[in-house]
UniProtKB/TrEMBL annotation:
InterPro entries assigned: Alkaline_phosphatase_core_sf, ConA-like_dom_sf, Sulfatase, Sulfatase_N
UniProt-listed CDD domains: PAS_like (cd16025)
Origin superkingdom: Bacteria
SUPFAM superfamilies: Alkaline phosphatase-like, Concanavalin A-like lectins/glucanases
Protein's name according to its UniProt entry: Sulfatase
Family under the similarity heading: Belongs to the sulfatase family.
Domain Sulfatase N-terminal: 79-493
Source species: Candidatus Jettenia caeni
C-alpha cells in the first residue's frame, strides 16, 4: 500500500512537471511558428508580414541599437524557373515528337529531361495562358474564350480576378525576379489603351519586367510592342534589315535580361515566362529560313501524316498499336487539289515550317544564355509545344491575309498564286490550309478550337531540371493539364500555395503537382478528372475514359448550331491513344456517367451557359468600353498606338474625319490619320501636297481618292466624308474630300471590312505606326507640317433588320447575365 502511494505520488509529480514543460514547449513553438510565418517564404499570406523590430530604441541613436532591414529571399536552393510557351502547335509538328520539321534545340532539351505525351491545353490561346499562369481552369478565371469576344457571363468576362493570383506574383513576393517576354493575350480588350486601367497588365500581375505585345497575334516584321506599359518600336540592328523579326527581338531581350540579372544577383532566382507568339499566324520569317524548306512538303498532308505516324511509333512518343485517325470528310484530300492549289499549299507550309525552325533556334539561344551564366543545373524548364493544337483557321486552301479568312472573306486562288513569292514577307499575312493543320496534329482528330478532341488539346511538353531529373530522355504518359504547371512550380521551389494575396482571399488552385512523375515513369497519375470546353465543343476525361462532343461549327467557318442535335462519342484512352475507336454504342452507361460528370464540372467551374456564337459576340458593345456612347472624338498631337477597340468606331456607318494643319512654305506630306496596316485599314494622308484617302480592303483591293488641288501654305482644314450605303455589314460607300470646305475629290469604296482590321495594328494621327496601310508609303511616314488636331464624327450603324436583331438579341442576353 505504501509503495503504491509512493508510486502514485511520483507519477503525479511527473505529470505536473510534464504539463509545465509541455506548456512551455507549446509557447516556444507558437512563438517559433509566429516568427517563421513572418519570415518564411512559405507563408500562405502574401505579402509576407514584416518581422518585429529586434533592435533597441532609445531617446537618441546613442542609446539605440538598429535592427537589420528585412529582405525577402527565396527558399534556400530554390531554382530558376523558365516557362516557354509556343503558340498554335500540333503534336506532330516538332521533330522531338515525330514531326518532319527539325527542332534540334527541343531535341537536346528532351535528351536531358522528360517528354510528356499526355499533356493537355484548353484548345485556345487566351484561355490556356490564363490557366497556365493562375493554376485554375480557364472558365474559373473568367477566360472561357478570348477577351475580344467575351461577355458578361462569369466564365467569359475576359477579366482574370484578383482572387486568382498568378504564379508570377506568388514568386515575386517570395523573393524571385520575374520577367515576361512575348505575347500577352490576357489583358481585356477595353483595358489596352493608355487610359488603362493597368490592373491586368503584367506589371500589376507579378512581373517586374515586360517586353512584348498585347493581343492574339503580332506582325513579326512590324509589331506593336510595349516595354512594361509604354509603347515602343522594335529596333532592328544595323545590317539586319529584312532579316530581323520579332522572334529575334524577343530572344535578344530575354538573353539581355538573363545576363543582367545574373550579373547583379547570381544567387537570386528568376522566373521567366517566354511566350513568343510564334508559331501563330501570320507566318512571317526571313527568306534565308524560308529557302531551307523549299520543296520539302510537296508530298501533301495525307502523306505527311503517314510519315509522321511512323516516326512517332519509332520514337515511342505514341504507344505500339496506336491507330492513325482518318481524315475528316470536311477536309479535302491533298490529291484532290489542282496543281496551282498544291503550289500555294506547299509554299504556305514551307513558310510555317521555317517559322517553326526559327522559333526553335531562338529558344535555343536563350537556353545557351542560361548555360553561359552557369545556371542550367539550377533551372527548372517547362517547354510547352502549343497553347492549343495547330490552327485550322487558314481556310481549306490557305490565306495570303488571314484577317480576310477570319472575317469570312474569300480570297480568289489566282490572287494567292499571284502573291506566292511574297509569302512570309512583310506584305503578306499568310496562313496555311486546314489540311496542314490537321497533319500537324498527327495522330489525332481535329485541331485548335475543337476542345472535344485531342487534336485541339493534346500538346507535347518537355520538362528539364539538371541534377534533379535523373531519367534523362525519359517519356511520361500520366494524364495532365495546363493548370498543373503552377502547383508543380510551387512544390519544386518549396513555396506554399497562398490563401491570401495583397489582402484578397484566394480561390484554391485547381491543378495538381506533376513532380511525383519526375523520377518515376510508372508512378500512378494524380489527375483523375478534367473537363474541356470551347465554343460548345466539349469533353470530360475521367480515369482513362473520355466522352467527347464536337459541336457544329468548323474552326474555319462562321455560324451557330443547335445544341440539342449534338452527338457524343466515347473513347477508352487507356487502350486507344489517338481517339480512333468510338465505343459509345458498346458502353452507354459509361458514356452517361461521363456526360453527367461534365455538367457537374461545368457548373463548378463557371462553364455555363454553353455559347457557340462567334460573329454575334464580335460586337464591341457587349463588353465594357471607356469610349461607350461617344460619337465625336478629338485627337491631339502625339496620339498614336491607340488600340482599335479604343479608337473611334467607323465601321458599318457614315463618318467624317477632319484634320487641322499648318502647311509650311514648300509644302508638307505625310499621314494625318491612319488605322490598321498591311492587313487592312484606312489612311488619310498628304502626298505631293494633295490630300488622299485610301481604304485597304484586306489587301485584296485598295480604294483611293486623291484631291485635285495642291494645298496652299498656311492653315488648312482637310475633311473626308464617308457616306455608308447601309443595309448590312461590310457594305460600300462614297468618299468625298474637302479642303477648306471646297470639294476636291470623290470616289467609291465598293466593300468595307465589317469587323476588326487587325489583331495588333492601331490608330494613329500624324504618322502610321506598325505596318503601313497604304502601299504608297513606308511607315511611319510622319506628317512634315504641323498637325493641330484630328476630329472624327460618327453616325449610328446603318444595318439590315436581321443584323440589328442579332445585335439586340446578343445585348439582351448579356444584360440578363449581368443581372
Amino acid at each position: 500500500m505504501k509503495r503504491k502511494e509512493i508510486e502514485m505520488g511520483t507519477t503525479s509529480h511527473q505529470q505536473q512537471w510534464f504539463r509545465r514543460f509541455s506548456g512551455l514547449l507549446f509557447t516556444v513553438l507558437v512563438m517559433l511558428v509566429a516568427t517563421v510565418s513572418c519570415q518564411s517564404p512559405r507563408s500562405t499570406v502574401l505579402p509576407i508580414p514584416e518581422p518585429p523590430f529586434k533592435g533597441k530604441m532609445g531617446r537618441t541613436y546613442k542609446e539605440s541599437q538598429p535592427d537589420k532591414i528585412p529582405i525577402t529571399r527565396a527558399p534556400a536552393g530554390a531554382p530558376n524557373v523558365l516557362v516557354i510557351l509556343i503558340d498554335d502547335c500540333g503534336f506532330g509538328q516538332w521533330s522531338t515528337f515525330g514531326g518532319q520539321i527539325s527542332t534540334p534545340n527541343l531535341d537536346r532539351l528532351a535528351e536531358n529531361g522528360l517528354r510528356y505525351t499526355r499533356f493537355h491545353t484548353t484548345a485556345l490561346c487566351s484561355p490556356t495562358r490564363a490557366a497556365l499562369l493562375s493554376g485554375r481552369n480557364h472558365h474559373s478565371v473568367g477566360t472561357g474564350v478570348v477577351t475580344e469576344i467575351g461577355t458578361a457571363y462569369p466564365g467569359y468576362t475576359g477579366q482574370i480576378p484578383k482572387n486568382a493570383a498568378m504564379i508570377s506574383e506568388i514568386l515575386r513576393q517570395n523573393g524571385y525576379s520575374t520577367a515576361f517576354f512575348g505575347k500577352n493575350h490576357n489583358v481585356p480588350d477595353w483595358e489596352t489603351s493608355i487610359s488603362g486601367p493597368y490592373d491586368r497588365w503584367p506589371g500589376l500581375q507579378g512581373f517586374d519586367h515586360f517586353y512584348g505585345f498585347i493581343g492574339g497575334e503580332a506582325n513579326q516584321w512590324a509589331p506593336a510592342l510595349y516595354r512594361d506599359n509604354q509603347p515602343v518600336e522594335m529596333k532592328v540592328p544595323k545590317g539586319k534589315e529584312g532579316h530581323y523579326t520579332l522572334n529575334d527581338s524577343l530572344a535578344d531581350e530575354a538573353i539581355k535580361y538573363i545576363f543582367q540579372q545574373k550579373s547583379v544577383t547570381p544567387d537570386r532566382p528568376f522566373f521567366i515566362y517566354f511566350a513568343p507568339g510564334a508559331t501563330h499566324a501570320p507566318h512571317h520569317v526571313p527568306k534565308e529560313w524560308l529557302d531551307k524548306f523549299k520543296g520539302q512538303f510537296d508530298q501533301g498532308w495525307d502523306k505527311y501524316r503517314e510519315e509522321t505516324y511512323q516516326r512517332q511509333l519509332k520514337l515511342g512518343v505514341i504507344p505500339p498499336g496506336t491507330k492513325l485517325t482518318p481524315r475528316p470528310k470536311e477536309i479535302p484530300a491533298y490529291n484532290s487539289l489542282t496543281p496551282d492549289q498544291k503550289r500555294v499549299a506547299a509554299r504556305l507550309m514551307e513558310a510555317f515550317a521555317a517559322y517553326t525552325a526559327q522559333t526553335d533556334y531562338e529558344v535555343g539561344r536563350i537556353l545557351d544564355a542560361v548555360e553561359q551564366t552557369g545556371q542550367l543545373h539550377n533551372t527548372l524548364i517547362f517547354w510547352i509545344i502549343g497553347d492549343n493544337g495547330a490552327s485550322m483557321e487558314g481556310t481549306l486552301y490557305g490565306a495570303f491575309n488571314e484577317m480576310a479568312a477570319l472575317g469570312g472573306i474569300q480570297e480568289d486562288p489566282s490572287y494567292l498564286l499571284k502573291h506566292l513569292d511574297e509569302i512570309g514577307g512583310p506584305t503578306a499575312y499568310n496562313h496555311y490550309p486546314v489540311g496542314w493543320a490537321w497533319a500537324m496534329n498527327t495522330p489525332f482528330q481535329w485541331g485548335k478550337q475543337v476542345a472535344s478532341h485531342l487534336g485541339g488539346t493534346r500538346n507535347p511538353m518537355v520538362i528539364a531540371w539538371q541534377g534533379r531529373i535523373t531519367d534523362q530522355g525519359g517519356i511520361r504518359t500520366q494524364f495532365h493539364h495546363i493548370i498543373d504547371i503552377v502547383p508543380t512550380i510551387l512544390e519544386a521551389v518549396k513555396i506554399a500555395e497562398p490563401t491570401e494575396v495583397s489582402g484578397v482571399k484566394q480561390k484554391p488552385i485547381e491543378g495538381v503537382s506533376m513532380m511525383y512523375s519526375f523520377n518515376s515513369a510508372s508512378a500512378k497519375g494524380t489527375r483523375h478528372v478534367q473537363y474541356f470546353e470551347m465554343f460548345g465543343n466539349r469533353a470530360l476525361y475521367k480515369d482513362g475514359w473520355v466522352a467527347a462532343c464536337r459541336h457544329g461549327r468548323l474552326p474555319w467557318t462562321m455560324g451557330s448550331y443547335d445544341f440539342d442535335k449534338d452527338n457524343w462519342e466515347l473513347y477508352d484512352l487507356a487502350h486507344d491513344f489517338s481517339e480512333d475507336n468510338d465505343v459509345a454504342a458498346q458502353y452507354p452507361d459509361k458514356l452517361k456517367d461521363l456526360q453527367d460528370a461534365f455538367w457537374v464540372e461545368a457548373k463548378k467551374y463557371q462553364v455555363l451557359p454553353l455559347d457557340d456564337r462567334l460573329t454575334e459576340r464580335v460586337d464591341p458593345t457587349l463588353r465594357p468600353s471607356l469610349i461607350e456612347g461617344r460619337t465625336k472624338f478629338t485627337y491631339y498631337p502625339g496620339s498614336i498606338r491607340i488600340p482599335e477597340s479604343s479608337a473611334a468606331q467607323i465601321k458599318n456607318r457614315s463618318h467624317t474625319i477632319t484634320a487641322y494643319v499648318d502647311v509650311p512654305q514648300g509644302g508638307a506630306d505625310g499621314v494625318l490619320a491612319a488605322e490598321g496596316g498591311v492587313v487592312g485599314g484606312y489612311t488619310l494622308y498628304i502626298k505631293d501636297g494633295r490630300p488622299t484617302y485610301e481604304y485597304n480592303y484586306v489587301t485584296q483591293v485598295r480604294y483611293k481618292v486623291t484631291g485635285s488641288e495642291v494645298m496652299a501654305p498656311g492653315p488648312n482644314t482637310i475633311r473626308m466624308e464617308f457616306s455608308y450605303d447601309g443595309g448590312g455589314l461590310g457594305r460600300g460607300g462614297t468618299v468625298t474630300l474637302f479642303v477648306n470646305d471646297k470639294k476636291v475629290g470623290e470616289g467609291r469604296i465598293e466593300k468595307t471590312g465589317w469587323g476588326r482590321f487587325s489583331a495588333d495594328e492601331t490608330f494613329d494621327i500624324g504618322e502610321d505606326t506598325g505596318s503601313p496601310v497604304s502601299a504608297d508609303y513606308a511607315s511611319p511616314n510622319r506628317f512634315t507640317g504641323t498637325l493641330k488636331k484630328v476630329e472624327i464624327d460618327t453616325q449610328p450603324m446603318n444595318l439590315s433588320a436581321v443584323d440589328k436583331q442579332k445585335i439586340r438579341t446578343t445585348k439582351r442576353e448579356a444584360r440578363l447575365a449581368m443581372e
